[in-house]
Amino acid sequence: MITFVIAAPMSGSGKTTVTLGLMESLTRRGLSVAPFKVGPDFIDPGWHRAVTGRPSVNLDGWICPEGFVRETFAFHTRGCDVAVIEGVMGLFDGIDACSDAGSTAQIAKMLDAPVILVVDARSQARSAAALVRGFAGFDPDVKLAGVIFNNVGSENHGRILRQAVEAAVPGIRVFGCIPRDEGLRIPSRHLGLVTAEEGSLTDEFRDRLAATIGEHVNLEGILSLQAHSLPPGGGGPASSSPQPPPVKGGGVKVAVARDEAFCFMYEDNLRLLREAGAEIAEFSPLRDERLPEDIGGIYLPGGYPELFADALAANRGMTEGVRAAVEAGMPVYAECGGFIYLTDGFVGVFPVATRMLPRRKALGYREVELTSDSIIGSKGAVARGHEFHYSEMDEMPATVERVYRVRKNGNDLGPEGYRYRNCLASYIHLHFGSCPEMAGSFVNNCLKFHDNQSLRSPGT
Predict the structure, then answer these.
(1) Rounded Cα distance, 448 and 451, in Å
(2) What is the mean pLDDT of the chain?
(3) Could you tell me the domains of the chain?
(4) Helices 66-76 and 104-111: angle between axes, nearest 10 degrees
(5) Is the pLDDT score of 432 beyond 50?
(6) What does the pLDDT look like over 347-376, one tens digit per residue?
(7) For residues 339 and 246, what is the distance between their CA atoms, to the nearest angstrom?
(8) Which of 332-343 are b and which e, b meaning 16 or more Cβ less than 10 Å from the residue's Cβ?
(9) Active site residue 446
(10) What does DSSP say about strands 82-86 and 115-120: parallel, antiparallel, or unpaired?
C-alpha cells in the first residue's frame, strides 16, 4: 500500500485543495483510497469522505497514545491501495515550541510515512528552494519525499522553482507546479471551511480538481513511492493500544445525531462504540420528527447548530423527544454544538442562553479528569480532546453539577462537564481513543437503562 502525508510550511498553503485533488484523481483511477486528517479537525474529513466515499479518520499524537494511532491506521487501511494523510497547520507545528507533540511531523514519524510538502509559491522564486531545504533538514527522522508548488504564476515561474530545488536540494523531487486558480478556492467561515454536508462539493468542482492534478502533478511519481508497512509494533491484533471494555450482557442501540447541523465527530468514537457493543442509529435533529425507536442512549456531537437555529427550534417533536429522554434518565452525551442544542431556545435541559461572538472564544487541546463517576467513565479517569468555538453561554447555575476538572498545557482551567440526571454535556470534544474505558462505560450505561426500561414495560 502506498502511503504519504500532505503537509505545508504553514496554514493557507493549499493542503486541503491538493489533498482533495489527489484523492479525487486516485479514486477516478479505480484505486481504493483511505483518507486521514492529522489533528482535531472535523471539517476536512467531511470533504475527504465526500470525495473517496470512505470515512476520514483523525490521527493525533497528543490526544491519543502512539499504539492507538498505529492501530487505527492499520484498521482503516485494510484492503486499501493508497492512504492519503492530510496534515495540520505547518509540518512541525504542534502543542508547543520545543517538541513535535500534536504535529504532522509526529504522525509521519509514528507511521514511517513520506511527506510531500505543499508550498505556496506566490511571490517566491529561488527563495522557495531555501524554504524546502530548511524543512528537509530540520528533523532527519521526517522523510521529506518531495514538494508540490501551489499558486504558480506561469510556466517560466514553474521552471525556475524546479531548477532551484534541483540545485539546492537534489534529493527532493518536485511533483508538480499548480497554477493560480481562484475557481479551486473552498468557501470558509468562522470555524474554517464550509462543510461538505452543505453541498459545496459539486461535480464541476471535482472535475476541475481532477483536471488540475492530471495536468500539473506527477501522479505516477507519487505512486512510485515505496510501498508502506507499519514500523515494528504498529497496528494489527498485536497492537498495544487500549481497547474498550466489552459490554456486559449484549448490545444496545445508540442514537447519533448526524446532519448538516451536527457533523463534527471523531469517526473512531463511533468505531469504538461499535466495538463496545453499540448499534449506531443515525438521526437528523433537523428533519426527523422523533428519535429512533428502541434506543438506550443518545450522542449529540458538535457542528453548526447556530446556522440552523430556527429549523432546529421549530422541530418540536424532536426537541420534546430529546427532553423526555433526558428526564427519563436515558444516558445522553453531548459536546459543543450538541451541548448548545440542549440549552434554552432548543431542548432546554440546561437553563442558559447561548450567543455567537465576532471573535473566537476558545481554541486548543484539553485534558479532563472525571471528578465523579459518570456515563463515560469512573472518577479519576483522564481523557483528552480539544475545544474550538465562537459561542459563549450564560454562567451555568451552581445547582448544575460539574463532573470534569479541565487542564490546558498542565494549567488548571477549573470545573466543566455539566450533568443533569444522566445527561453529560461539555464544550470539549473528547476522543474516546484517549481513554480506554469511555466507549465501554457509555455503552454499558445505555444497556443498563434500556434493560431497566424493558423490565418496566407492560408484558415483559
Answers:
(1) 5
(2) 91
(3) 2-223 (3.40.50.300), 252-456 (3.40.50.880)
(4) 70
(5) yes
(6) 999 999 988 887 777 779 999 999 999 999
(7) 28
(8) bbbbbbbbbbbb
(9) no
(10) unpaired
3-state DSSP assignment of residue 48: helix
DSSP 3-state of 47: helix
Length of the chain, in residues = 460
Q: Active site residue: 64, 80, 177, 336, which one? A: 336
Joined together, the cell numbers standing for residue 28 give: 477516478
Percent of the chain with pLDDT over 70: 90
Quick: pLDDT tens for 80-116.
Answer: 999 999 999 999 999 999 999 999 999 999 999 999 9
Give which of 11, 19, 95 is closest to 363, Cα–Cα.
95
C-alpha cell belonging to residue 450: 434500556
Residue 237: its pLDDT value, please?
35
184, amino acid identity: L
Helix (H) or strand (E) holding 146: strand 144-152
Cell numbers given for 171: 534529493
* Helix 43-52 with 15-28: angle, nearest 10 deg: 20
pLDDT confidence bin for 232, thresholds 50/70/90: low
Residue 457: count of CB within 10 angstroms of its CB:
7
Alpha helices in 288-430, H assignment, sequence order = 309-314, 316-327, 337-341
Q: Whose CA is closest to 274, among 291, 253, 257?
A: 253
